[in-house]
Design a protein that fits this description.
By secondary structure, the protein is α/β, with parallel strands linked by helices. The protein folds into three domains: 118 residues, 3-Layer(aba) Sandwich (D-Maltodextrin-Binding Protein, domain 2); 81 residues, Periplasmic binding protein-like II (D-Maltodextrin-Binding Protein, domain 2, 3-Layer(aba) Sandwich); 88 residues, Double Stranded RNA Binding Domain (2-Layer Sandwich). The protein has ten helices and 13 strands. The chain has a five-stranded mixed β-sheet with strand order 2-1-3-10-4, sandwiched between helices. Strands 7-6-8-5-9 form a five-stranded mixed β-sheet. β1, α1 and β2 form a beta-alpha-beta unit. The termini are far apart. About 2% of the residues have low confidence.
Length: 308
Amino acid sequence: MKRRTVRVGTRGSALAIAQTEEVLSALSKAWPEAVFEVVRITPVGDRRKSAPLLSLGRGAFAKGVEEWLLDGRIDMAVHSAKDMPTTLPEGLVIPAYPKRKDARDLIVNRLNAGFYELPSGARLGTSSPRRSGQLLAARSDIEIVPIRGNVDTRLSRVSGDDLDGVALAAAGLERLGRIGEATDILDPELCVPDAGQGALAVETRVGDERMREMVGAVNHASTWAAVTAERAFVDFIGGGCRVPVAAYAVPSGGKLRITMMACLPDGSQIYRKRVEASDVDPVSAGREAARSLLETGADAIVYGERGL
C-alpha cells in the first residue's frame, strides 16, 4: 500500500479518542507506511445531552460519524460497538472488532463499599435503563438517579452531595486509566452487560477494499464471534424495543456461552436466561438465544403493552 493519509472519524470525548488511539496503535503496527489523522465529530446523541437514552435509540451516537463516512469526508470510523445499530446504513460495513476489553459494569462510590454493602437508600447515578433495571431488581431499597455526561463528568458527581455513587462500564475506566477508582466490578449474573460493551467496531464503506483490507488486520476472531452473536440477539428481539435487553457472549472451546436479560427499568420485572451454542454461526446462535429468552415470558414486557 502506498503511503497515504487515512482519515479516521470518531466522537470527540476523551473516551472516544482513547478508543480510537487504541485501534490506531494496532493499525500502525500492521501498516507502518500509513499516516492516520483523527477527525472529531459531534453526533446527535452528544448534542442532546438531556434526552433519556432510550428515547434516543441505539445508533444515536454513531449516526453523525456515519454521515461523514458515507460522504467521503473520512475513510473509516471507530465506534463503541454497543452504540451501533443492528442494521447499518446502506453502503457501510463493519470489517473488524478488535480484541475486547472487560465487558462488565462497575460502581464507583464515595463509601468505598461493594454493591451489596451499600446502605439502604443509597443513591446511584446511571444513564442506562439496563443498569437501573437490573440493580433495582437486585436491591429495591436503593435509589437510581438518571445522569448523563461523559465519564469524567459522571465520576465527578461521586464527590458531590446528591449521589453516593455511579454505575459505569469497566472498559471505559480501563481505557482512561481510571479503573483503580472502581469500588465493585459487577458479576454479569447480577448485571448483564450491553450487547457489544467493552468492544470497539471499525466501520468502512462497502466497496472500499483497500480500507477493508487495512481494518481486517486488527479483527479479533473471538471478539468477532461474541459481538456478532450479541448483535444478532438484539436484532431478533427488535433493536427499537422500549425496554432494556442485554446479551453477553463468552467464547470458550468452540462454544459461545450467552447470558441474556430483559427487564423493566424500575426492576419490577426481570427475565434471565443462559444458553450455550457453537461459535461456527454466531448469527444463528444469537437469534436462538433471543428466542429462548422470549420463551421464558420475557415477550410479555418486550412486546406487551407495558413494553411499548
